[in-house]
Amino acid sequence: MTTIDVTIAERTGERQLRFTASRLVCCGWVGKDRMALQAHIDELGALGVPPPTRAPIYMNLSTSLLTTAQAVDVVSDTTSGEVEYVLLRQGGRMWVTVGSDQTDRRIETHSIVASKQMCVKYLADRCWPYEEVAPHWDQLVLRCWVTTSERTLYQESALAHILAPDELLGTLPGGPLNDADGLVLYSGTVATKAGLMYGDRYELELDDPILGRNIRGEYVVTQLAQYI
What we know:
single chain; mainly beta; Fumarylacetoacetate hydrolase, domain 2; five-stranded mixed beta sheet; 5 helices; globular
């Protein structure tokens, strides 16, 4: 288990939550639009990643990978992040925030699960109660900016284009949802605007245009030197 301290930003104020993660699930191939989903499959296929045998996919990973730290260490020059919504479920309540599923793309050509387990899973340290955004869920917007030599808008999509929480949780393997206390679920991502990028810095945003607020997070990637 892993403990994460986050701030719950409710419409009536803020309070702190100490969340104990007992299960980490990363989803993939979650696009509702078949053409957009195929575009994401194709961009990974160009790197040698085999297409999925089912959609969506669910990958159980170690909760020790979870972090809100703004500095991420990697051991490869072929890792990249991707913006996702992140669900936290505890005590019958659910919250939503934004995160990034940093992945080793070279390892991904051999094993998608191993490529995910290779890298930490960043999430912002602020979240919203799910019930506050559920009525207008499809209008929430995910954005990601990547910095290499310059800052670039990398991904941008309304949540209407990917599977919603009820759809992902409804087919979650491993038992009834009532047994999912301590669950952290990464939603899977959307297609990039211009192909895969290996960035030094990732900025993430979950935007709520209806209530006029957003959750932002960012982290810097450092490749550790190796002497082998």
